[in-house]
Design brief:
The complex is a heterodimer of chains A (374) and B (21). Chain A is of the alpha+beta class. Chain A is built from ten helices and 19 strands. A seven-stranded antiparallel beta sheet of chain A has the order 4-3-2-1-7-6-5, with helices on both faces. In chain A, strands 8, 9, 10, 11, 12 and 13 form a six-stranded antiparallel beta sheet that branches. Helix content of chain B is 0%, strand content 24%. Chain B has one strand spanning 3-7. Classes of the chains: A alpha+beta (374), B mainly beta (21). Chain A binds chain B through residues 33-34, 37, 40-41, 44-45, 87-99, 106-110, 122, 124-125, 137, 140-141, 143-144, 147-148, 150-151, 154, 213, 309-311, and chain B through 1-21.
C-alpha cells in the first residue's frame, strides 16, 4: 500500500479504529450528484442547524463510538457496542468538521422523483449524521485517511497506478478535451421530430440499447429496426439514433427498462412522435496520450470497455462504458484477440483514435443476439 | 470556527443511482 498521510496506521484502518463522540442527531437533505465545495459547506451547515438545539435549550446527546475502517463507518452505542448506524465507506459522500462538530454525509439511493425537472437534475438523498467530539478534526482526518487508503486499493484492483492519479494536473486545458458528441448534440440540425403512423396495437418495430455510462446524452439508442415495421417504414430513423422523447415525454436519464416501457405504452396509438438526435452507429474517441507510460484510464474485457477512470484522458476523449472497440488508429479489431487489443492500446500514444459502438448494438448487428422489437 | 470538507474520492467513480437504503 502507498503511504497515505493521516493520524492512523494503515493496518489499524483495515481492521477499524474507534473514536469516542456524542451523537446529536440525523437529518436528510436532497443533493446533486457531485456538488461543488460551496454547496457541500452549505449542506453541512444546514445539517448542523437542523440538528442542534436552539441556544438556551438542552442539547440531547448520546455517547457513541465511531468505528472507522477502509470498508465501513459504524456508529456504536458506547456501552453496548450495538450498531446504531452502519454505512459502507463508498456510500459516504463526504465529511465536514466545524470546531468540535463532525458531520457525516451518507448517500442513499437515487431519490425517485415524479417531477421531471428533478429527475433531470438527478437528486440524491443524503443522510446527515451530526456528532460532537473535542477531537472532531482528528476523527475527520482519520476518515479522510480511510477514504484515501480505500481509494488507492480500488485503483490498484482496477489496474491503475495510484501514483499516476492526482499527481498530474487534474483538468487539462479545454483544448485537450475531445468530444465529438458535444458538437454533435449541440447542433440543432441533428435534432428532429419523427412522426410515425401505425396501426392500433402494432409495435413501433425498434430495438433499444443504452447509450452507456459516460455518454453526454444518456438515453435509449436505436439498435435495430424491424424490417417492414412502422419505424422503418417512416424512413427517417436509423441505427445509432438517440431517442430523447416520445410524444413529448423525455426519456433522457431514464433507465433502459423505463424507456422500453414508454415505447410499449404507445402500442395502442395510431400516430407517435419520437424526438431524436441523429447519430451514426459508430462514434470516434480521440485520446491524447503524451507517452505510452501514461495511463489510458479505462479497462477492456474482450474488446468491450468495462470501466472508466473519471477525469482520465479516455473519458475526456469520449470513451464510454459498455462500448465495443471496432477500430484502433484505423485498424479493425473486431476479430482481434483480447491480448492483441490490449497490446495495441498500451503501445499507442500521441493521438489515439478509437472507434466504438454500443456492445449490444454490435451483438445485434453481427447476429450474436436476436433483437427484441418493441 | 473553520469548516473543513473532506470528499470521498470514490464518489466520482460510483455509478449513478448507487447508494444505501
Amino acid at each position: 500500500l502507498p503511504h497515505v498521510p493521516g493520524p492512523c496506521d494503515h493496518e489499524d484502518l483495515l481492521d477499524g479504529v474507534l473514536f469516542g463522540a456524542k451523537y446529536l442527531g440525523s437529518t436528510q437533505l436532497l443533493s446533486e450528484r457531485n456538488p461543488p465545495p460551496s454547496t457541500r459547506m452549505a449542506q453541512a451547515q444546514e445539517a448542523v442547524d437542523r440538528v442542534k438545539a436552539p441556544d438556551g435549550e438542552t442539547q440531547p446527546m448520546t455517547p457513541v463510538d465511531l468505528f472507522v475502517s477502509t470498508k465501513r463507518i459504524k456508529v456504536l452505542m458506547a456501552n453496548a457496542q450495538e450498531a446504531l448506524m452502519d454505512h459502507a465507506l463508498q456510500t459516504i459522500s463526504y465529511i465536514a468538521d466545524i470546531g468540535p462538530v463532525l458531520v457525516l454525509m451518507a448517500r442513499r439511493r437515487l431519490a425517485r422523483s415524479t417531477r421531471p425537472q428533478e429527475r433531470e437534475r438527478r437528486l440524491y438523498k443524503m443522510l446527515c449524521h451530526v456528532f460532537h467530539a473535542e477531537d472532531a478534526q482528528l476523527i475527520a482526518q482519520a476518515i479522510g485517511q480511510a477514504f484515501a487508503v480505500a481509494y488507492s486499493q480500488f485503483l490498484r484492483e482496477n489496474g491503475i497506478d495510484p501514483s499516476q492519479v492526482g499527481s498530474r494536473p487534474r483538468a487539462t486545458s479545454p483544448g485537450h478535451l475531445h468530444n465529438g458528441d458535444l458538437d454533435h448534440f449541440s447542433n440543432s440540425e441533428n435534432c428532429r421530430e419523427v412522426h410515425i403512423e401505425k396501426r392500433r396495437g402494432e409495435g413501433l418495430g425498434v430495438a433499444l440499447v443504452e447509450s452507456g455510462w459516460g455518454s453526454l446524452l444518456p438515453t435509449a439508442v436505436i439498435a435495430n429496426l424491424l424490417h417492414g415495421g412502422p419505424a422503418e417504414r417512416c424512413g427517417e430513423l436509423s441505427i445509432g439514433d438517440r431517442v430523447t422523447a416520445i410524444n413529448g415525454a423525455s426519456l433522457v436519464g431514464l433507465p433502459l427498462a423505463a424507456c422500453q416501457a414508454a415505447i410499449r405504452e404507445v402500442k395502442s396509438h395510431t400516430a407517435v412522435t419520437l424526438s431524436i438526435v441523429h447519430c451514426p452507429p459508430v462514434t470516434t474517441a480521440i485520446i491524447r496520450r503524451l507517452h505510452s507510460r501514461e495511463q489510458l484510464g479505462f479497462c477492456v474485457e474482450d474488446g468491450v470497455i468495462c470501466s472508466l477512470l473519471r477525469g482520465g484522458i479516455a473519458e475526456r476523449g469520449g470513451v464510454r462504458v459498455g462500448h465495443r472497440i471496432i477500430e484502433i488508429n484505423g485498424q479493425s479489431v473486431v476479430a482481434t484477440p483480447h491480448a492483441r487489443i490490449v497490446e495495441l492500446l498500451t503501445e499507442a500514444h500521441d493521438e489515439v483514435h478509437i472507434r466504438t459502438m454500443p456492445a449490444a448494438t454490435y451483438r445485434l448487428l453481427t447476429g450474436q443476439e436476436q433483437p427484441v422489437y418493441l | 470556527s473553520a469548516l473543513t470538507i473532506t470528499v470521498n474520492p470514490m464518489e466520482k467513480h460510483e455509478a449513478p443511482g448507487r447508494g444505501e437504503e
